[in-house]
Amino acid sequence: MDTVKCLIIGSGPAGYTAAIYASRAAMNPVLIEGLQPGGQLTTTTEIENFPGYPNGIAGTDMMGEFRQQAIRLGTTCISGIVTKVDFSESPFKVTLDDGTLYVADTVIISTGASAKYLGLESEDKFKGMGVSACATCDGFFYRKKVVAVVGGGDTACEEATYLASLCRKVYLIVRKNFLRASQAMQDRVMSTDNIEVLFEHNTVEILGDGEGVTGVRLKKNDGEIYDLPLDGFFLAIGHHPNTEVFREYIEVDAEGYIKTIPGSPKTNVPGVFAAGDVQDPHYRQAIVAAGSGCMAALEADRFLKSK
Ligand code: NDP
After folding, report:
1. Which end of the chain is more exposed for a tag (fewer CB within 10 A), N or C?
2. What CATH number does the domain containing 246 carry?
3. Residue 239 C-alpha to ligand 1 middle, in angstroms?
4. Whose CA is nearest to atom 43 of ligand 1?
5. Global pTM?
6. What pLDDT does residue 43 have?
7. Which three-class secondary structure state does DSSP give residue 17?
8. Contact status, residue 153 vs residue 131, Cβ threshold 8 Å
């Protein structure tokens, strides 16, 4: 059994930033890196919108730098997956998949949210080579090109509109005969000349070659199948917050995102904080996650000092 002042769960920008601040506050944090060390950013190609990298940086490199900085300042990074928690009383208990038990005075949950994918083999093959789940991250690389966005909710409409400002043409692939997005977003999509909505269409395969995506095979609800040439394919069919293991103790909203006290990283359990996409269905940006990681570490420090 290991006892720590501050246990951070999750290794995206929120987790590593929390670790940097917690280290500097002499909390000797332990950070559990999880299934995908570095988080969602490691699935993107180049990051151009994180301040401080004037020439852009690869997602994996940026997260490597966050990690190095946290370690240099005193964070212990542990490879493992949290399988069980007990937040019924302080100190809190956190168990990893290898059976290691941590007892922690404070916990920062920064397990992020995972973009949902369609589950096609070809989609997996071209991830980062034309298949992306983040228009804000990758849209810039498709300037004046032809792309498609799949989904009919607010995210899909927002991403399609954003891409339309950069790309020559944007197809919005919607499986039903209506959009689920808010009326305002629907109106924006419908009034954008270079967006074409393909209702009642399903993606059956992503087509590509050694260079990346070249198109998509679509099946209409009436059974017709055809290929549409494309340069990029964007998923916007929702995100799934990684909160299952905490739900017995931590309040979540209808979609599973952790509820925090507005404007703070505090959860319903004093001493347990949440930062990053795991509590943010709206912005989902690395810089926002990093900022909330900082807030969580500051609050954890205050919590420890108040005891
Ligand atoms: P939603 O769950 O609202 O929408 C997901 C969309 O993806 C739906 O159109 C759904 O289709 C479609 N979809 C799901 N699975 C598949 C699949 N396997 N194949 C094809 N299509 C699929 O997710 P969003 O990310 O859009 O939004 C999440 C929440 O965040 C919402 O509450 C939204 O309002 C909010 N949000 C708000 C924004 C804002 O206010 N600016 C911006 C972005 C999000 P179907 O309709 O057929 O189920």
Report:
1. N
2. 3.50.50.60
3. 8
4. 155
5. 0.78
6. 64
7. helix
8. no
Q: Domain tally for the chain? A: 2
Query: Residue 46 has what pLDDT?
Result: 74
Token pair, residue 95, equals 């168990």
Q: What distance in Å separates the CA atoms of residue 9 and residue 21, rounded to the nearest whole number?
A: 15
Q: Please give the pLDDT value at position 44.
A: 64
Structural domain of residue 138, as residue ranges?
117-235
Tens digit of each residue's pLDDT (9 = 90 or more) over 272-293: 999 999 999 888 889 999 999 9
With a cut of 70, which residues of the chain have pLDDT below it? 43-45
Establish whether residue 176 lines the binding site of ligand 1, counting it when its CB lies within 6 angstroms of any ligand atom.
yes
Give the pLDDT of residue 86.
98
pLDDT value for 14: 98
41 Cβ closer than 6 Å to some ligand 1 atom: no
Q: Residue 105 is encoded by which pair of tokens? A: 């005075």
- Of 192, 220, 235, the position where a domain reaches its end is 235
Q: For ligand 1, say whether the CB of 152 is within 6 Å of any of its atoms.
A: yes
Residues with active-site annotation: 134, 137-138
CA distances 238 to 118, 146, 150, 276, Å, are 11, 22, 10, 16
Q: Measured from the CB, is residue 143 less than 6 Å from ligand 1?
A: no
